[in-house]
Amino acid sequence: MKYVFGPVSSKRLGQSLGVDLLPPKSCTWNCMYCQLGKTRKFVTDRQEFFPREDILEEIRESLKVNDRLDWITFVGSGETLLYKGIGWLITEVKKLTTIPVAVITNGSLLYLPEVREELFQADAVLPSLNAGSEVLYELIDRPASGLTFLQHKEGLKAFRREYKGRLWIEVMLLGGINDTDEALNDLVHVLEEIKPDMVHLVLPTRPAPEQEIRLPSDERLEKAIAILSQAAMVVHPLKGNMDLRNTHDMLEAITGIVSRHPVQQSELHKAIADCFPEEPKKTDDLMVEFFASGRFNRVEHHGEPYWVIKDSVG
């Protein structure tokens, strides 16, 4: 599979089949926390990077072998909405299945009416809002030239007015950066203008190859929930469990997931163990075998080992 990966699990979306629409790393932002590393060349022009029919065929084939899916989630190795034709894909997928469709995006292109329209058939859209001020927007998201905070905010507000599905705003909470009272109050004022259905707090639990990013303290996390709850219900997602039980080629499935984001070694071990509950030694043997394939490196993040794809290191 070139475009489809998973399923992966989360508190927000349960068992989700991922669909990656972009070559790495195609993005409008260069976020300081990005698990994919630095955006070395901004992409701002929308394109059909891969044939839409090929992507749809992989989704169709995946649906035949995955019978426990909660969502089909369009994501990107960068900014998802750079894929021109995502609206066609959403419409065609909904002809194939009743499984709901989600789109994860940074939201930077929602100021464009044609982009907003392509998302109208999605069941849930999850755009980012990491800052309530121009200063923090520039510091955290580091957008391409011409993409402003005001433009980002107004795009989110326009989309909320037009979109009838579930709008779940993602806020990446960074210790010492946007978890101060001032930053949180700025954020809640913007959220009150947007009026999302929910706010999903996200923490930088995966390693960012470019620089060290700190988790917020428990005290600041609780303060963030209290302040942001003034605008909408706040969900602090807990990571789910990776499910590899339906995979026909486990190494390829793991490679597909790790190439999109680092995976905690303990999470990977549990996913393999769930496939062989009566054979604990097989899990350890497969972990050794898969790492020996040469596709992965290990990195430490907050004292925990993660697997990353070798090409993304450095």
Description:
The chain has 314 residues and is α/β, with parallel strands linked by helices. It has two domains: 4-235, Aldolase class I (TIM Barrel); 250-312, Winged helix-like DNA-binding domain superfamily/Winged helix DNA-binding domain (Arc Repressor Mutant, subunit A), CATH 1.10.10. It has helices spanning 52-65, 86-96, 113-118, 134-140, 149-162, 181-194, 218-228, 250-258, 265-275, 280-291; strands at 4-10, 14-20, 71-75, 101-105, 124-127, 166-172, 198-202, 233-235, 263-264, 296-301, 304-309. An eight-stranded mixed β-sheet has the order 1-2-3-4-5-6-7-8. A three-stranded antiparallel β-sheet has the order 9-11-10. It starts with a strand and ends in a 5-residue tail after the last strand. The model has no long low-confidence stretch (mean pLDDT 88).
Q: Which key phrases capture this entry?
A:
single chain, 314 residues, alpha/beta, TIM Barrel, Arc Repressor Mutant, subunit A, eight-stranded mixed sheet, three-stranded antiparallel sheet, 10 helices, 11 strands, globular
